[in-house]
Design goal:
With about 325 residues, the chain is an alpha+beta fold. It has two domains: about 170 residues, Butyryl-CoA Dehydrogenase, subunit A, domain 2, CATH 2.40.110; about 130 residues, Butyryl-CoA Dehydrogenase, subunit A, domain 3 (Up-down Bundle). The chain contains eleven helices and seven strands. Strands 1, 2, 3, 4, 5, 6 and 7 form a seven-stranded mixed β-sheet that branches. A hairpin with an 8-residue loop joins β4 and β5. The longest helix is centred in the C-terminal third of the chain and has 30 residues.
Length: about 325
């Protein structure tokens, strides 16, 4: 552990997530964490099982998988850093996105973090700890932070869209929150697990897309309307291709866990992003406008997925792939 003040080390394990309240998300998250305290680690031989679990959560609810994936990702990051497993009654988030409003800094002398961090997601009071990239000595190391009352406040007032509204997201305001640095300053971005975890996000998207596709598959219109059946056939082809790519990538990661597999991960994320968009468009065409106007669960899932897949960097990633491919030979040989 780098730059930690030992007087605050135990404080990181004091706060456990709030067990009060009866909203569905909080209750469902608590139950899942009790039933499955951890998932197989990426690169540990069961990467596909991890992604299957994430896909199931994604098919059930994107706000649910948003919270659970972050928690399981945090556990994997801590394990990759050689840290002990946190207490089972804690729930973790990972906040590493930046932005123009970011001011969060780590004070090594005090072992505290203060400032603003954009793009923080998770119900306040449910999330007990977070792994956060912070400014320290002209670098952006990862800090483990306790989200204690009075030391952290989430301002989600600027979130205006309908997508992912079930998970509060906005600026995190830290005020001398107890913290310690995790591993080396460049650990978060340089570890292989950074890319392996990015592929896990694609599994979340994939799961939600299968739930939307299932809505089409069950539609009576498939047997009555040839265009509806054609859209379902196209959806099947897309999802099957994405399924095969995810399975192959999981095998490759397990065979070579120390490799980032950046090229394959980026390719899978770009493809699953496009598949999700195609599935949503075809589902709307196959089911008609009523599905997005009167089926609240389906309409919300589509809005959630539309927002969630924008975690993909789209054409920026495709540009990187194209430039890398330009130097390759035999890229498409069977």
């Amino acid at each position: 552990m780098s730059g930690a003040n030992t007087s605050h080390a135990t404080a990181l394990h004091v706060a456990s997530f709030d067990t009060s309240g009866s909203d569905w998300l909080a209750s469902r998250v608590r139950r899942q964490i009790r039933e499955t305290p951890d998932l197989p680690r990426p690169g540990g031989g069961e990467t596909l099982e991890r992604w299957r679990a994430l896909a199931r959560f994604g098919a059930e609810s994107l706000p649910l998988v948003k919270v659970l994936e972050a928690h399981y990702d945090a556990l994997a990051i801590l394990a990759e850093a050689g840290e002990p497993r946190p207490p089972v009654d804690t729930l973790w988030a990972v906040w590493a996105a930046g932005g123009p409003t970011e001011t969060v800094r780590y004070d090594a002398h005090a072992g505290r973090v203060s400032g603003i961090k954009p793009w923080c997601s998770g119900p306040q009071g449910l999330i007990s700890h977070a792994l956060v990239t912070v400014a320290h000595d002209d670098r952006r190391p990862l800090a483990a932070i306790t989200l204690a009352p009075g030391a952290f406040r989430l301002d989600a007032s600027q979130w205006s869209g309908p997508g992912m509204v079930g998970v509060p997201t906005g600026e995190g305001h830290f005020s001398e929150a107890a913290a310690r640095l995790v591993s080396a300053p460049e650990f978060y971005l340089e570890r292989p697990g950074f890319w392996h975890g990015g592929a896990g996000i694609a599994a979340c998207w994939f799961g939600a897309a299968t739930a939307i596709a299932e809505r089409v598959r069950r539609s009576p219109g498939v047997s009555k309307n040839p265009f509806c059946a054609a859209h379902l056939g196209a959806i099947d082809a897309q999802l099957t291709a994405a399924q095969l790519m995810l399975r192959q990538l999981a095998r490759d990661i397990d065979r070579q866990p120390q490799d980032s597999h950046r090229y394959a991960v980026t390719r899978v994320r770009c493809f699953v992003d496009r598949v999700c968009r195609d599935v949503m468009e075809r589902a709307a065409l196959a089911l008609g406008p009523a599905s997005l106007c009167t089926d609240a669960e389906h309409a919300q899932r589509c809005a959630d997925l539309q927002a969630f897949i924008r975690q993909c960097h789209g054409q920026r990633d495709e540009q990187w792939l194209g430039e890398a491919l330009h130097q390759a030979e035999g890229a498409w040989t069977l």
